[in-house]
Amino acid sequence: xxxxxxxxxxxxxxxxxxxxxxxxxxxxxxxxxxxxxxxxxxxxxxxxxxxxxxxxxxxxxxxxxxxxxxxxxxxxxxxxxxxxxxxxxxxxxxxxxxxxxxxxxxxxxxxxxxxxxxxxxxxxxxxxxxxxxxxxxxxxxxxxxxxxxxxxxxxxxxxxxxxxxxxxxxxx
Length: 172
Description:
5-stranded parallel beta sheet; alpha/beta; single chain; 5 strands; about 15% strand; Rossmann fold; about 170 residues
C-alpha cells in the first residue's frame, strides 16, 4: 500500500478499513456470529440506519458493505443534496439494476432530509431499486426526525457508540 503517494486519495481515506476483519470497534453488532456481520457476509443486507456520534465508523462500514456485496456505492450527504440529484442517483441505480448491478446509497445525515426529499426516496427503497444505508448522529425514531413511512423500511437501526481506547487493544 502506498500511503504517501502525492497524487492519491487523502491519507484518512486510504487508511480506512476495507474489510470486516480490518474494522475496529462495534463488536456488539459486528463481532463473530452477530446478526449484522452474518447479513453482510452472506450478502443479505437490507436497508438500515446507523446512528452514533461522528467518528464511530458509519461511513467506513457502509463502504465495507458495498465492497463485500459487490454493489455500486453512492455516498450522499443529506445536508447538501437536492431533489434533482436524488432523482439522478435513482435513475442511474435503476439502469444498473437492469444490468444486474445492485446499488447501495449511503445517505449521511439523513435527519436533515425534509419530507419532500424523503418522499422522493421512499418508493425506490421499497421497490428495491436501491439499498439505503442511512447515517445520523442521533436516534431518528426517538427524535421524530424521519417520517413514519421511511422509518418502516429499514430492517433495523444499529447504534454505533463512541469508540474507546480499549478498542485499539483488539488490533492485530
